[in-house]
Every structure is written in structure tokens, then in C-alpha cells.
């Protein structure tokens, strides 16, 4: 039994005293409490303060502390044992894993560079450890060897290795330290500039919250009372759902769009299917046929020539003759599930605002708590929408179109040249060209559209590669048009310096160079040491600012900081491939979806399943060929129930960086650099976990 607390009794005794010494003796043989107060207390000052606690109580406290310590050690040991088991299984035994292939132009050069730096670091570590054990280290290195530092004379040199080590120290200080220090200072300057930009954005977001600034609709033009009078308040709206082999999410996406609350004679839904899998085509056509029989104005469209990825798909759909009758177009990717009132919350903003070309809604995520990877993605995207998109929308009327969950004025698309197939970021491309033509954008932070986050690291990695290579490829193409455009010089500076260079190029460059290459190298070249505030204080402050839009994610702030540095190798590789137009800069891989549904979708699905009488009505008016397709569909669905064998991957670049950082951590122990050691250790473990694909979805 735990000992009772006497805090309340002691407080009550102090409040009730009137200057008379009080002696309280408990009948419990295990405890005795003595409180002396007043003038006579001086006689007892020499008494031992701990005499009131007997040996049994003291032993109980020690046991509690020992239990906590053992629990922490056991937790760390279990984690280390699990990591070693994963290393043995995936690296040594190679059970259920596939090694990432390095094709030409897809990071092969970067991997060779990292492998060379790692080999050199291991060689230097061995050399430094030999010097450390022999006591050859100087006390405090600097860019120049101090004049008062005792350099051993020729007679004091102990062997050829000692002589080689002294030559290495001199060469390191004179020729290696300066280039590393110069590159380090350059990256620190970029780091400070980017951090200042991040703080300005956060200040803008706080100002918006404080002043309660948000786009507002004048009046209520879409009131239900006005529907009976006429339809002039409801413009013609086209809804497009581009998809490609989206077996897991096509049904819930089409279902959500077909339930949008808008007059059916003023709404057309286009399902733009680029699937090359015949089974998936049959599934999607059957779903479209089902909703068409319910009276929804929905059409299925499949391209014969599948070029240009999503941009080519949208461009082909906009060339249809019936599109000329429509004024606005809403776009939803295959995993997005808009609420029924989506159009009523977005379309009214266009009324009385002829310069408005785009209304962008915010994303929400149905699987943000699925695993650690989705939680970390949620932090990033919450900051992107809450801070970046909202601030740019309020103060600049410009931001990058997110490619989905937005409504375009078709005239703005046509004036800007329409969809172009020149990059893999067609959404950013059309947004930049529309901005150059004077169109304004609005971001609605309170209108949210549920969607999915990638649950596996492989899918997330491919998505991030496309999101960071495409903007650099677009920058090469758009730079002449930006310079020669008629927009103001401030808007040109914002586009070139902030939108492209600072947030798309500089951020991945300094993150990778400073924290993944320079920092471990400074352990072997201590003359170019990085200050502690660059490694610890500023990154922690920036991480706190990033987590503010998602306050429930504060417990994950340290994993978020480490994971962002880990992703810098992928983003840097993508940025370089896009900037120099390498082979992987124009590559589109459809992000793998899991088919998660929100709670409301699950309830709606349960209701539909509870009404089997409605299903036969769906087959009325179906032709014989369609019935044959539906029968074939059932057979295909049975085949799909068998799981497809997949495996987790091993990522060589991340593993090479993990070994480099852990090697730097071992070297930092020799010079007793506390902050540097812990950062390198945890960052190295983070790279190791990602390199072994232990973050995100695990495939057994």
C-alpha cells in the first residue's frame, strides 16, 4: 500500500496554529510526523530533517524510482531489439523486401556521391580513433592552428602514423575547413531567410485569425426560397473526376459527387477514366451506369490516346462540344468526397466578382491517424492550407492551385491557354499563367473536402518526388513569361523569389546540404563546426510553428523534425532532376490509395446495404451488353479478393545517409559534443528506419 500524503494535514495545522508548538503523533507504527513552530523551534534546528521518515518508507521510495528506471531501460531495450531484428530480417536475410532500383537519372549519381562520402567518413573515423587512443588530439581546433599550440618536433614524432596525422591536421585546417565553412555559412544564411519567411507567414495567419478575415458572400443568393422562382441564380456547372486505375476509391468518389446539392439540369458530371486495366474500366462504367439510371446527369469518358497524364485527360474533356454551355468547372481527384453543399459554398463567391478565376477549398483527411506517416503528413498539409494558402489568398489573391477540390471559371482557363501537358504539375502551371493574366484566387479555409493520405512510404515518396520535381521544371519554362508579363514588379518578385526559389528550391537544398552532409562532415573537420542554435534552437522553433495549425500533433514534434530532414534527400533529388530536366522530371506515378472512408460514408453505405429492394431497379433499361459486363464484373471482383503479393522496399540512399550520420555521431563522442551527438544519433536512426521502410504501412 502506498504511503498517505500529509500535505493537507500540514497546511491545516499551519493555518490553525496560534503561536503554540504543536506535536502530532500518529498511532500508525510506520509513520510519525512532528511539527514544531514558534520561538521554541530554534532548539530543534539541529535535528535531522529526515528523521521523521523511517527506513521502510525510504525503501519504498527507492523501489518506486528503481521500477521507473527499469521500465525505461526495458522500453529502450525492446525498441533496440526490434530495430536490430528488422535490420537482420530486411538487410541480412532479405525476407519480404525488395531493393529500390536505381535507373538512369533517378538518383543514381546522388547515391554514388553519398556512398563516396560515407566511405571517406569511415576511413577518417578509423584514423581519428587511432589518434584518440594514442593521445594525439589537440584540445580545441580552429581554422588556423594557434601560435601557442605545441607542435611536436621531429624528434617527438612517434612513427609514420603520427607524422601522417599531423600532416592531416595541417592540411585539414588550411584546405578543407574553409570550403566547408563557406558552404556552411551560405546554407545558414538561406536557413535564416527561409525561417524569416516562415515566421512572416505565421504572423499573417495570426493576424487573419485576430481580425477574423475571410472571404464572405454578399447576401444569400442560393436560398432555397428562390429555387421555385427561377434558376437564374444557379449557373451551369461542370464537375470532372479524373482517375487512372483507381480501383479502391472510384465508387466512393463518384457517389459523393453525384449527391451534390445542385439542380440536375444545370449540372454535368464527367468521369474521366484513363485506366488501362480492363477490369477497372468495367467497374467504373457500371458505377456510372448505376447513377445515370437514378437520374444523375453523368457521363463516362475514356481516351484512346493516353498522353499528357492528368493534364492531357482534362484537356481532352474540355474539348467536348457540350462544355461550351457551362460557366464553371469543379475538379475532384478520385479519392475526394465533397459534401453535398460544396457548390453552394463555393459558386456564390464568383457572383459580382468578374476578376475571380479560382475558388480553392481545403483538404481534410479521413486516415490522418492511421499510422505515424499519416500523422506527420497531416502536420505538413495543415500548415500548407492553414498558413501558406490562406495568407497568400488573403494578402496576394494568388496561390498554387492544389489540383483538386477547387472551382475554376472556364473563361479563366481559356484565357490562360487551358491545360498544358508540358509538366507533371499542371495545377501549378495553370495557376501561374492565370495569375500572369490578372485573374484572382480565393481560398476557403472553412470549406473542407475529405480525402486520403498515402499510408505507405513508397507511395508518399513518389508523390513528393512529383511535387518537388514538377515546380522546378515549370520554373524553367515560366521564367521568361514571368519576366515579360505586364504584372507589377512586386508580383514578379513574389513569383520568382518566394513562390519558386525560396519555397521550392532553397528549402530542399539547404535542408539536405546543411543537416545531412555538412553537419556529419564537421565532426571530422571540427574547424568548421556548426553553432548549436542552427542545429537545435531554430529548427525546434520552426517545428513548433509548423505544428500550431494541428495542435493535436504536438506529441509528434520531435519525429516530425527528424522526418522532415529525412525527406530532404528525396526532395533534393527531385528538385535537381526537375531543375536540370533529368529523366525522372517528367514521370507520373499514381499515388496508391487504400480506399478509406469517412464515418458519414460508412453510415451511408450501411443504409444502402440495408435496402436490398432498390438494387433490382438499377438494372432497368440496361442493355444485354451491359448485363454481360456486369456478370463479368462479378467474376472479376471474386478474383480481386485474392491478395496480391507485395513487399516492403529497402532505400539505399536513406541507408547510406543513416550510416554517414551514425558515423558522425561516433566521431562526436571523441570531442564530447553533446547536442551534435544526440542530433546525429537520432537523425541517423530516423534515416535507418525510413531506409528499411519501417515507417508507414507494413506489408507482411
UniProtKB/TrEMBL annotation:
<dbReference type="GO" id="GO:0099402">
    <property type="term" value="P:plant organ development"/>
</dbReference>
<feature type="transmembrane region" description="Helical">
    <location>
        <begin position="655"/>
        <end position="670"/>
    </location>
</feature>
<dbReference type="InterPro" id="IPR001173">
    <property type="entry name" value="Glyco_trans_2-like"/>
</dbReference>
<dbReference type="GO" id="GO:0048868">
    <property type="term" value="P:pollen tube development"/>
</dbReference>
<protein>
    <submittedName>
        <fullName>Probable xyloglucan glycosyltransferase 5</fullName>
    </submittedName>
</protein>
<dbReference type="InterPro" id="IPR029044">
    <property type="entry name" value="Nucleotide-diphossugar_trans"/>
</dbReference>
<dbReference type="GO" id="GO:0000139">
    <property type="term" value="C:Golgi membrane"/>
</dbReference>
<keyword id="KW-0961">Cell wall biogenesis/degradation</keyword>
<dbReference type="Pfam" id="PF13632">
    <property type="entry name" value="Glyco_trans_2_3"/>
</dbReference>
<feature type="transmembrane region" description="Helical">
    <location>
        <begin position="175"/>
        <end position="193"/>
    </location>
</feature>
<comment type="similarity">
    <text>Belongs to the glycosyltransferase 2 family. Plant cellulose synthase-like C subfamily.</text>
</comment>
<dbReference type="GO" id="GO:0016757">
    <property type="term" value="F:glycosyltransferase activity"/>
</dbReference>
<keyword id="KW-0808">Transferase</keyword>
<keyword id="KW-0333">Golgi apparatus</keyword>
<feature type="transmembrane region" description="Helical">
    <location>
        <begin position="530"/>
        <end position="548"/>
    </location>
</feature>
<comment type="function">
    <text>Probable beta-1,4-glucan synthase rather involved in the synthesis of the xyloglucan backbone than cellulose. Seems to work simultaneously with xyloglucan 6-xylosyltransferase. Xyloglucan is a noncellulosic polysaccharides of plant cell wall and consists of a glucan backbone substituted by xylose, galactose and fucose.</text>
</comment>
<feature type="transmembrane region" description="Helical">
    <location>
        <begin position="495"/>
        <end position="524"/>
    </location>
</feature>
<feature type="transmembrane region" description="Helical">
    <location>
        <begin position="113"/>
        <end position="133"/>
    </location>
</feature>
<keyword id="KW-0328">Glycosyltransferase</keyword>
<keyword id="KW-1133">Transmembrane helix</keyword>
<dbReference type="GO" id="GO:0071555">
    <property type="term" value="P:cell wall organization"/>
</dbReference>
<feature type="transmembrane region" description="Helical">
    <location>
        <begin position="66"/>
        <end position="87"/>
    </location>
</feature>
<keyword id="KW-0472">Membrane</keyword>
<keyword id="KW-0812">Transmembrane</keyword>
<feature type="domain" description="Glycosyltransferase 2-like">
    <location>
        <begin position="329"/>
        <end position="535"/>
    </location>
</feature>
Amino acid at each position: 500500500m502506498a504511503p498517505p500524503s500529509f500535505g493537507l494535514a500540514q497546511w491545516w495545522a499551519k493555518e490553525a496554529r496560534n503561536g503554540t508548538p504543536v506535536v502530532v503523533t500518529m498511532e500508525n507504527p510506520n509513520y510519525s510526523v512532528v511539527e514544531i513552530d514558534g520561538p521554541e523551534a530554534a532548539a530543534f534546528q539541529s535535528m535531522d530533517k529526515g528523521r521523521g521518515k523511517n527506513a521502510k518508507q525510504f525503501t519504498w521510495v527507492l523501489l518506486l524510482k528503481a521500477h521507473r528506471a527499469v521500465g525505461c531501460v526495458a522500453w529502450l531495450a525492446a525498441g533496440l531489439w526490434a530495430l536490430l531484428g528488422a535490420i537482420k530480417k530486411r538487410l541480412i536475410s532479405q525476407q519480404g523486401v525488395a531493393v529500390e532500383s536505381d535507373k538512369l537519372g533517378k538518383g543514381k549519381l546522388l547515391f554514388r556521391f553519398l556512398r563516396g562520402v560515407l566511405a571517406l567518413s569511415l576511413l577518417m573515423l578509423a584514423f581519428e580513433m587511432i589518434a584518440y587512443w594514442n593521445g594525439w588530439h589537440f584540445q580545441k581546433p580552429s581554422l588556423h592552428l594557434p601560435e601557442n599550440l605545441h607542435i611536436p618536433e621531429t624528434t617527438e614524432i612517434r612513427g609514420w602514423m603520427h607524422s601522417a596525422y599531423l600532416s592531416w591536421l595541417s592540411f585539414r585546417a588550411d584546405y578543407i575547413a574553409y570550403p566547408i565553412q563557406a558552404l556552411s555559412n551560405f546554407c545558414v544564411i538561406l536557413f535564416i531567410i527561409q525561417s524569416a519567411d516562415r515566421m512572416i507567414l505565421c504572423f499573417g495567419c495570426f493576424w487573419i485569425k485576430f481580425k477574423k478575415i475571410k472571404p464572405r458572400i454578399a447576401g444569400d443568393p442560393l436560398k432555397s426560397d428562390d429555387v421555385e422562382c427561377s434558376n437564374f441564380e444557379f449557373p451551369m456547372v461542370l464537375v470532372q473526376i479524373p482517375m487512372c486505375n483507381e480501383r479502391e476509391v472510384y465508387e466512393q468518389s463518384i457517389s459523393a459527387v453525384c449527391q451534390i446539392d445542385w439542380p440536375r439540369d444545370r449540372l454535368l458530371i464527367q468521369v474521366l477514366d484513363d485506366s488501362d486495366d480492363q477490369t477497372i474500366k468495367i467497374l467504373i462504367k457500371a458505377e456510372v451506369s448505376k447513377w445515370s439510371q437514378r437520374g444523375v446527369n453523368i457521363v463516362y469518358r475514356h481516351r484512346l490516346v493516353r498522353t499528357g497524364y492528368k493534364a492531357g485527360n482534362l484537356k481532352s474533356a474540355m474539348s467536348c462540344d457540350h462544355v461550351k454551355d457551362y460557366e464553371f468547372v469543379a475538379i475532384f481527384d478520385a479519392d475526394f468526397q465533397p459534401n453535398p453543399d460544396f457548390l453552394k459554398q463555393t459558386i456564390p463567391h464568383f457572383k459580382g466578382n468578374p476578376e475571380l478565376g479560382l475558388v480553392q477549398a481545403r483538404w481534410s483527411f479521413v486516415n490522418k491517424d492511421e499510422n505515424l506517416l499519416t500523422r506527420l503528413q497531416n502536420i505538413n498539409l495543415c500548415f500548407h492550407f492553414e498558413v501558406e494558402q490562406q495568407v497568400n489568398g488573403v494578402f496576394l489573391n494568388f496561390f498554387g492551385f492544389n489540383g483538386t477540390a477547387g472551382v475554376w471559371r472556364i473563361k479563366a482557363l481559356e484565357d490562360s491557354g487551358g491545360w498544358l501537358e508540358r509538366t507533371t504539375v499542371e495545377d501549378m502551371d495553370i495557376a501561374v499563367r492565370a495569375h500572369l493574366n490578372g485573374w484572382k484566387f480565393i481560398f476557403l479555409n472553412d470549406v473542407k473536402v475529405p480525402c486520403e493520405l498515402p499510408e505507405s512510404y513508397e507511395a508518399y515518396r513518389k508523390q513528393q518526388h512529383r511535387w518537388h520535381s514538377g515546380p522546378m521544371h515549370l520554373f524553367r519554362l515560366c521564367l521568361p513569361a514571368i519576366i515579360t508579363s505586364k504584372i507589377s514588379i512586386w508580383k514578379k518578385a513574389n513569383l520568382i523569389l518566394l513562390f519558386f526559389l525560396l519555397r521550392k528550391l532553397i528549402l530542399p537544398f539547404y535542408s539536405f546540404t546543411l543537416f545531412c552532409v555538412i553537419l556529419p562532415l564537421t565532426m571530422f573537420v571540427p574547424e568548421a563546426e556548426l553553432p548549436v542554435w542552427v542545429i537545435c534552437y531554430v529548427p525546434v522553433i520552426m517545428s513548433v510553428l509548423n505544428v500550431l495549425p494541428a495542435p493535436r500533433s504536438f506529441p509528434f514534434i520531435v519525429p516530425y523534425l527528424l522526418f522532415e530532414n529525412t525527406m530532404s534527400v528525396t526532395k533534393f533529388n527531385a528538385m535537381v532532376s526537375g531543375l536540370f530536366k533529368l529523366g525522372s522530371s517528367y514521370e507520373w506515378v499514381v499515388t496508391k490509395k487504400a480506399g478509406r472512408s469517412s464515418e458519414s460514408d460508412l453510415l451511408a453505405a450501411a443504409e444502402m446495404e440495408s435496402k436490398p429492394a432498390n438494387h433490382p431497379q438499377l438494372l432497368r433499361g440496361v442493355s444485354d451488353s451491359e448485363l454481360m459486363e456486369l456478370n463479368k464484373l462479378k467474376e472479376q471482383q471474386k478474383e480481386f479478393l485474392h491478395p496480391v503479393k507485395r513487399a516492403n522496399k529497402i532505400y539505399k540512399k536513406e541507408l547510406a545517409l543513416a550510416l554517414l550520420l551514425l558515423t558522425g555521431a561516433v566521431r562526436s563522442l571523441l570531442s564530447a559534443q553533446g547536442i551534435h551527438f544526440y542530433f546525429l544519433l537520432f537523425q541517423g536512426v530516423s534515416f535507418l528506419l525510413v531506409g528499411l521502410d519501417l515507417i508507414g504501412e507494413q506489408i507482411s
